[in-house]
Design goal:
Helices cover 34% and strands 22% of the residues. It has seven helices and eight strands; from the N terminus they run βββαβααβαβαβαβα. The longest helix has 19 residues. The chain is globular and about 55 Å long.
Length: 273
């Protein structure tokens, strides 16, 4: 229409805040999407999302639509996006925040050229999420502390597995897309072994989804093979409360798998609450 003025479109329900971590001093952009209306009995379930700069809109829309499903199996939920104060989909700082303390000499050449960023920031980042971001969210929305999930993809998927193995009580649902296991396999496999030795029959129920794209089968880091192996090994502990699902999405690659994995992950989480 001639003369009409365009306005910036906003993501429904969503606001954002620039926040500096008390420990590392790293600056983050935190997104918070709270459904309108009263919280359900027990509070809103909460979905924490890594790499929010790249996927926050996709996740919020998936929750917004699936949370009102006509079959009555959905549930509205709060979304917390964990991003960086940069206008790029994947900030370099994630290579520190989501990684395990692997010596750089054991890593392949850095794909962006030059030296690898500092490794092993996963525990510091997790402390920031649990001790700084989570209390802020709980002060702004009525949430269900027993129904919370963490979603990550690629290196973020590795972080989700690390969190499951080292802080299994931090969340009720762990959603790992195309986890970057190969680079850190010595450390993440050791964490997995320590985790399963502590499982007991009748343990508290936890939902785990591991998803990959079919075309990732040719990825040099053997993403699909490693991810399927994790799912099969953890799936053997169903009697200990682990509900593990593995999905391979047809004709999707490492990046194109993101929207379909998010849709599947949101569906699992909302129906598990």
């Amino acid at each position: 229409m001639s003369g009409a003025a365009w306005e910036t479109a906003a993501i429904p329900w969503t606001k954002q805040l620039v926040m500096q971590a008390g420990g590392s001093g790293q600056t983050y952009r935190i997104y918070l999407a709270v459904p309108p209306g009263e919280a359900p009995e027990g509070g809103f379930p909460v979905l924490y999302v890594l790499d929010a700069n790249s996927v926050i809109g996709t996740v919020v829309e998936a929750v917004r639509l699936q949370g009102r499903s006509r079959d009555g199996q959905g549930s509205p939920a709060v979304v917390v996006g964990l991003g960086y104060d940069e206008e790029v989909p994947f900030a370099t700082a994630r290579l520190t925040d989501y990684s395990l303390p692997m010596p750089v000499e054991e890593l392949p050449p850095f794909s962006r050229g030059g030296e690898w960023p500092r490794q092993g920031g996963a525990d510091d980042f997790l402390r920031f999420v649990l001790e700084e971001v989570r209390p802020m969210v709980e002060s702004m929305a009525t949430v269900n502390r027993e129904r919370q999930a963490i979603l990550g993809h690629s290196l973020g998927g590795l972080f989700v597995l690390h969190e499951l193995y080292t802080r299994p009580d931090a969340f009720s649902t762990y959603l790992a897309g195309s986890p970057s296991i190969d680079w850190y396999k010595r450390l993440i496999f050791a964490e997995e072994q320590a985790f399963v030795t502590q499982l007991q029959p009748g343990g508290k129920r936890k939902h785990v989804l591991i998803g990959v794209g079919e075309e990732e089968q040719t990825h040099p880091t053997r993403i699909n093979e490693h991810a399927r192996g994790v799912a099969e090994r953890l799936g053997a502990f169903a009697d200990c409360g682990l509900d593990v699902q593995f999905e391979q999405f047809a004709r999707e690659n490492h990046i194109s798998v993101l929207p379909v994995f998010i849709s599947r992950a949101v569906r699992l989480f909302l129906r598990s609450v």
